[in-house]
Amino acid sequence: LAGFNGTYIYNGTAANGGGVYTARRLNLVRSAIGYDPENAKAPNTASDRGGSAFVNDAELLVQISSKIGYGTASNDGGNVYVTGENGNGKLTVYDQSVIQWGEAVNGGNVYLNNGNVYFGGTADATHTTGSQIVNGQATGNGGNVYVKAGIANAQGDALIAGGGSKKTTMDGGNIYVCEGATFTMKGRAIVRAGTDLGDGQQAGNIYNAGTLEILGESKVYGGATVAKTGERNVYCASTGTVNMINHINSKDEYVVNE
User: Fold this and answer.
1) CA distances from 108 to 4, 102, 165, 213, 245 (A)
2) Which of helix, strand or coil describes residue 151?
3) What pTM was estimated for this model as a whole?
4) Helix, strand, or coil here: 233?
5) DSSP secondary-structure letter at 254?
6) 99-150 tens-digit pLDDT
7) Engineered SS bond to 137: which of 108, 122, 199, 210, CB 3.0-4.6 Å?
8) Is 80 helix (H, G, I), strand (E, B) or coil?
9) 83 phi and psi angles, rounded to 5 deg
C-alpha cells in the first residue's frame, strides 16, 4: 500500500494518468489531485485516458475529505480511469470525499473499463452527503460515470449529480451503463440533476443498456432533456434490465423503455 496524506498533485501531463498512474493500491487521505496547496484549480491532463488518475489492476482509495477535480482526458475518464486485465481495477470513494468537474469523451469524472467502483460514506453533523461525484462533462456518454464492464455501486449517502454534455451526441447525463455491466444504488444514494443533450433525448440521469438496480431508499430525480418536457430519469435500452426492490417508487415512475 502506497499513500498520500495531505498531499497535492497538480499540473501534470501524461498519455494516461495525468496526475497519477498506479498499478498498486494507493490511498489518498486528506489529499487533492487537481488542486495546488492554496486549493486553487490546477488541472492534470491526459492525452488519452485518466486525466487525474489511471488505475491499472489496482485500487485507488479516496477518503477522509480528499478531492479529485478538473482533470481532462482526450478520450475516456476525465478524472479517473479504472481498468485491469484481471478485473482487479477498483476505485473506492467515501468519507465526504469528492470527484468533480472532470471532462472527457466518455465518463467525464469516472470511466470503469473493467473492475469495480464504490461510492459510499455517510452524512454527518457537518456534511449533508457522503462521497460526491459531481459536475462531470462528456462529449460522448456518461457525464459523471461511464460503466463499460464490471460493477459500480453507490451506497450510503453517496451523491452523483450535475452531469451533462457540451455537445448533442450524448446519452446519460449522469451515468451510462453498457450491456453486460451493472450499476447498483442502495441505502440513501442519490442520482439527480443530470442533463441529456443527446440526439435521442432519452434520459437526463441514467442510460441503461446493462443491469440497473435501484434499491431501498435510494433516489433518482431531476433528470432533464432538452427536447422533452418533464423529468426524464432512467432510459432502459432493449438489452437492459432495471430491478427496483423494496423501493418507495414504482418502476413506471422512473423508467422509459426502448
Assistant:
1) 24, 5, 9, 22, 29
2) strand
3) 0.92
4) coil
5) H
6) 999 999 999 999 999 999 999 987 765 666 789 999 999 988 999 999 999 9
7) 108
8) strand
9) -155, 180
